[in-house]
Amino acid sequence: MLKRHSPAVQFHVWETPFPTSLEDARDIVYELLWNEDIPLSDNLASFLAALWERFPSDADSVGEAPVWATRVKHRPQKHPAVLTVGISASHVAVAQPFLLKTAAQLGLVVSDSRFFVVFLPTGMELGDRKHLERAQDDQAI
User: Residue 7 pairs with which residues in a beta bridge?
Assistant: First the structure.
């Protein structure tokens, strides 16, 4: 039986447009999720490839606690304009900085799935990282 692992945190990752507020980020993600006609961009495909190359274990992997709690090896069939990437609780400390750095290098926007904080590729953050850290701590218990 394949064991599923709950993510400590999930992130939405997209290319454009850049949000100007947390509310704007939420609206952008919801709009992109509804638009299935946008193909997976080269930058998003490169992002997924980089995640897999660095940590080749995801929700389809056999074994204990994969790094990625969602599928990253295979390209998404639905909603390719925005990716949702989950990180398993035991790997957040290492995988989250790599995810954020890689996204920034590719010019991608990252938001946690609860929209506590948005990371722009310019290095600017919208929101409060403390809320995200508290949520991660609560889920790790």
Answer: 88
Sign for the CA dihedral angle at 85, 88, 89, 92 comes to negative
Per residue, the 3-state secondary structure of the chain, as one string, reads CCCCCCEEEEEEEECCCCCCCHHHHHHHHHHHHHCCCCCCCHHHHHHHHHHHHHCCCCCCCCCCCCCECCCCCCCCCCCCCEEEEEEEHHHHHHHHHHHHHHHHHCCCEEEECCCCEEECCCCCEEECHHHHHHHHHHHHC
Q: What is the pLDDT of residues 24-48, one digit of tens each?
A: 999 999 998 888 788 888 999 999 9
**pTM value surpassing 0.70:** yes
